[in-house]
Amino acid sequence: MNKIQMVDLRSQYLNMKSEIDNAIHEVIDSCAFINGPAVAAFQKDLEKYLGIKHVIPCANGTDALQVSMMALGLQPGDEVITTSFTFIATAEVIALLRLTPVLVDVDPDTFNIDPEAIEKAITPKTKAIVPVHLFGQTAPMEEIMKIASKYKLFVIEDNCQAIGADYIFSDGSLKKAGTIGQIGCTSFFPSKNLGCYGDGGAIFTDDDELAKQLRVVVNHGMAVRYYHDYVGVNSRLDSIQAAILKVKLQYLDQYAAKRRAAADFYDKAFAGNPRLRTPVRYSKSNHVFHQYTLVAKDLDRAALIAHLNSKGIPAMIYYPVPLHLQKAYIDPRYKPGDFPVTEALSDSVFSLPMHTELDNEQLACITAAVLEFVNA
Fold first, then answer.
1. In the chain, at which residue ranges do the beta strands (DSSP E only) sit?
2. pTM of the model
3. Are the beta carbons of 191 and 165 closer than 8 angstroms?
4. How much of the chain exceeds pLDDT 70, in percent?
């Protein structure tokens, strides 16, 4: 049996080695390393896949969020509502731009932002909502968009963990995650469902004028070379990474199917166990399982992870400390106990290996090791 890893990038690479190697060599042969044809070709393919008019590649997912807020013209002191149960980048960019992060609690089943909590947090200073499509399934976007329309707020989707997922509206229509709000953002970090071999990110929008502004901001605030009308940043997806992503995009739906199959195996193995809660699959989203995250009930989580590690099985905690309790973001507005669902999840969740190369032998080994501890 191959070594079990949280993400097995090497095996995935070996399964498409010739395609990846050829794509990289084509860029090197062309020497068009920055904004070359490979970037334009990937951009076009991703626009078609997502069904969106504009994809603006950038350097990483954090930049995608920051550039989006800059392009929308948000000003210091403006409030941006987001979840406390997410990776730090979501709030980090709000703070860096001297905006005011307003944190709210999440749904106990899906772990995604709670629309009722959003509406309760809105003030005259609120300008935007940043829902995070956590662990591979969408936030309740229909409800969020209604709230945003009611209060005239921007919606920036943090889609760094759910690219390829579909959202199903009440009328049965579908839209890809990241294409519902005014702006969607994603990361191509290597471990993502669509990952490159370095850093990378992208921004999505159907708004022509907003797309123009986003392209200006990512390019030093420059629409015409050496004429800078706005304060911008230098945030580019390099051509080698774009070429890799163009190859991998062809397999994204196949990757999602493999992840779902692994999740099905886990679900079946843990079904009905009173000490484990398997991921709840939101009825309006098809889960693409960036992570497979369980809730431990009446278990010593640290001892369980140590047990798995002793058998060569990795496990992770996403996320052990909520944003409102992070030292860098301590705020007198928030105190322990303010977000009971988020805090309970941070104390009880753990994630098992999840990637496209998991086989049944590995999955059987992982589940057996978990159940050995849980049922002891």
1. 54-58, 79-83, 100-104, 126-130, 154-158, 166-168, 174-176, 183-187, 201-205, 222-224, 227-228, 276-277, 292-296, 349-352
2. 0.96
3. no
4. 100
Q: Determine how β-strand 154-158 pairs with β-strand 100-104.
A: unpaired
**218, 249, 280 — which closes off a domain?**
249
Mean pLDDT of the 73-88 span: 96
pLDDT score for 329: 85
Q: Tell me, yes or no, whether 25 and 129 share the same domain.
A: yes
Question: Do 53 and 91 belong to one domain?
Answer: yes
- Return the structure tokens found at 371: 């159940």
**Claim to verify: residue 137 and residue 173 sit in the same structural domain:** yes
Q: Which of 216, 249, 282 is the last residue of a domain?
A: 249
Mean pLDDT of 258-275: 97
Torsion of CA 233, 239, 241, 247, to 10 degrees: 140
- d(Cα 282, Cα 65) in Å, to the nearest integer? 25
Give the helix, strand, coil percentages of the chain, each rounded to 5: 40, 20, 40
Question: What is the predicted pLDDT for the residue at 23?
Answer: 98
Residues 296-321 have a mean pLDDT of 97
- The answer on 199 and 339 residing in a single domain is no
Mean pLDDT, range 66-80, rounded to an integer: 97
Q: Report the DSSP beta bridge partners of residue 132.
A: 158
